[in-house]
Design brief:
6-stranded mixed beta sheet, 628 residues, Rossmann fold, alpha/beta, 20 helices
Length: 628
Amino acid sequence: MASFLQIENISKSYGDKVLFRNISFNINEGDKIALIAPNGTGKSSLLKILAGIDSSDRGGEVKFMKDIKVAFLDQNIDFNPSNTLFDEIYLRLGETYEVISRYEKAITSGDNNSIEHAMAAMDAADAWSVEQRIKQVLTSMKLSRMDQPMGELSGGEAKRAAIALMLLQEADFLVMDEPTNHLDIDIIEYLEGYLQKSRCTLLMVTHDRYFLDNVCNTIFELDRGELFTYKGNYSTFLEKREERYNNMQANIDKARNLLRKELEWIRSTPQARTGKARYRINAFYDLKDKASVSLARKEMSIDVATSRLGGKIIDCTDVTFRFGDRIMLNNFSYKFSRYERIGIVGKNGAGKSTFLNLMTGDLVAERGTIERGETLRIGYYRQDGISFKAGQTVFDIVHDIAETVTTADGHTISATSMLNRFLFPPESLNKRVDILSGGEQRRLYLLTVLMRNPNFLILDEPTNDLDILTLNILEEYLESFKGCLMIVSHDRYFLDKTVDHLFIIREDGNVKDFVGHYSEYREYIKEEEAEQNRQAKLAAEKLQQHNKPQTEKPATTRRRKLSFKEQKELESLESEIPQLEQEKANLEHSLSSGVLSHDELTTAAARIGEIIELLEEKEMRWLELSEI
């Protein structure tokens, strides 16, 4: 396989903190690699060096294969807020945009020679259909308002626009930093399917373990400034990393045993030592360095008490809430039970956050009642993240809530001790919150929520900006959480690990309760879709049979003649069935054209379902009448 990227001896440090030193690796054509490391250890820095945004501290080389096309997806992209969605994507298409611009200028100039060269360049770049391709990709990303200003897009919509731009570049090599952040599950699964089928080469940072497991064939791990390679997916990585740690620990233990013997020799009298070879003295100090290595990881520790939860939690009766003309929640009734673990699922804009805000009392229902128990203490981790004033430090944020925190075993510890357990050592307490990384802000915010000892924990997109190791620790804590749990998340693995049943928020405001994990829900949906396809295929076969030339049956085979009413019904069916089939074909063509808006797509899909049912009903009746 061709080598798409060669990295030799690159390093990066910030002050005294070494992220990585003299790392080298190679990426071949077709490799699909995930980079894993705790937050703050250099993942994004490494990707920025590859993108040319940053540089290595001590030279080193970054060499991409000549003539391959590389596309980078950063966590944050600065779009022009005044441009429309379509124009912004169009303007950012780089070489393709330049080819189109030269063609347009040539047409304006009227110079036949320029026009001929420009047309050849358009052919080579396949630029004639670029407008249609842009619309198709944006539609697949559920972005139907092409004229919407970029400044009006939500965080999730902006991320989808960035992914659409990356896909439109049709690059040979994709480098992506947290591609699944702020995406809903449908788009994550679409992107996952695209990358599975694509022949592109890939290097990405992601915390979505199902996405990683289903897409990648190699794992890079940054550990203590070194890079380790594991062939296989995430599950294989976990096994191989454990094996590597065990081997390293065995070597360290062996070095320590040998060091004890050598230490006796090095402490012997100077007269005895002068007669020894110098190489043994040097070997002693090398051995000492090996024996002093510690594999202990500094990991976040969540140990917070949960307040007592009474029998009454939250009782909802016929709760309805509107936003303008739209019903966000429609006649919702439910009594929450102790220790329930609920996942909230729905498309972006379906009303998941609205539902949470109604449960907490941040929003008031238009109709119906929401009664909360006297012992209820809600901890609400919002998607927006931590709120802080200018100049506030890590210590200020926590100290404003409480000076002490009660742990799960009933002990009381200082807020600074709890900060240390959340990986904020004493030297970081005076750090301003605004200069913390995204992952550090998320950890601090989680602490501020938990230190209030809630018994009903609501987490709205808790996985954004948290690394995999931190997510594992959070999942372990939630598994033993002695209270109610309600989670909105796009991370399918996280949902499977933490909840027992799902509330599916539909766009019409109705809520469906599905008992089971998210993976089971997706299987249920796939089975439903398969059944719909089966019914559609059956209807098509019946119609095909109907359209075959019919030979008149001998009179002796008929048991009776059709009545006048039945004859008229048969004639009507013979005209209605082809009309319905034509309408179905037209709708299928529209759905695959990529030009329909989101609302038009929804309406068309619903109408096809109605037509399939009508065709089945009318064809069955036609068969009955034909056989009389």
